[in-house]
Design goal:
Helix content is 29%, strand content 35%. It has eight helices and ten strands. The chain has a six-stranded antiparallel sheet. Strands 1-2 form a two-stranded antiparallel ribbon. The chain has a two-stranded parallel ribbon with strand order 3-10. It starts with 11 loop residues before the first helix and ends with a strand.
């Protein structure tokens, strides 16, 4: 029996949703969920409360409810392998998933103090800002902002829009090898627009991943921010 904190601020069904979500992401709950009666006994609640939790999981894309058959865990969580020389595209290719970036907007802006510091650029420098969606197998998994140093990558937006893959666009500018200089991962709630783009409730956290890439000469070539639907992806860090 799993204890529920009935005095906590979170609704009881939300606590059940969180518990089942954790079980799914950890791999301890796979294939078919126990039926509503069994889950109600586990959490010492009524079936209506369990039903609310399952509905929320379905809205997040973590389970499929098949009437007459049961509730099934979606076996499509993507392992994003954060390595020194890997990008999301490499993880997708490894598992034969189809992924591409849909460019929403490109503009030349004056970089903020933080952006310029991460890209090793002097004060008042301009950068190319690219807003995009990462789409895998037809579903949006991430809302992205990428910043590229100028004038080095002037015109990259045109190539990037055509290829839909960052490292292929960078290759057109002579960047054939790269390395991850830094990645910073945190969890936070999305704003309304990001939640809408990801197709998830605004009350469900996202994975906020910041990354700086450098070329073979240790020159920074990109600072990116990816806001991932955390029910669609998990970060895998492997020692090198």
């Amino acid at each position: 029996m799993t204890k529920i904190n009935r005095s906590a601020g979170n609704l009881i069904w939300r606590q059940i949703e969180d518990a089942l979500s954790a079980d799914i992401l950890s791999g301890s709950l796979t294939h078919r969920l126990p039926n509503e009666t069994a889950l109600a006994e586990r959490f010492s609640v009524n079936r209506h409360t369990v039903r609310q939790a399952i509905k929320a999981l379905a809205e997040r894309g973590m389970v499929d409810v098949v009437h007459g058959s049961g509730t099934f865990v979606r076996d499509n969580v993507i392992d994003y392998q954060v390595g020194r020389r890997t990008r999301l595209a490499h993880s997708l290719a490894k598992t034969q998933r189809v992924g591409k970036s849909q460019i929403l907007n490109c503009s030349v802006i004056q970089g903020t103090e933080e952006i310029l510091a991460l890209l090793d650029l002097p004060e008042l420098s301009s950068v190319l800002a690219v807003e995009s969606l990462d789409i895998v197998d037809g579903s949006v998994i991430s809302v992205c902002m990428q910043y590229f140093p100028l004038p080095r990558f002037a015109g990259l937006d045109e190539i990037y829009t055509k290829t839909g893959i960052t490292h292929l666009a960078l290759a057109e500018f002579g960047v054939h090898t790269f390395q991850r200089r830094m990645s910073r991962v945190s969890a936070r709630l999305p704003d309304k627009e990001v939640a809408r783009q990801l197709g998830q409730p605004g009350t469900f956290p996202i994975l906020y991943v910041e990354t700086v890439y450098a070329d073979e000469n240790q020159q920074a070539i990109e600072y990116g921010i990816s806001q991932f639907n955390s029910s669609a992806i998990q970060i895998v860090i492997e020692p090198e």
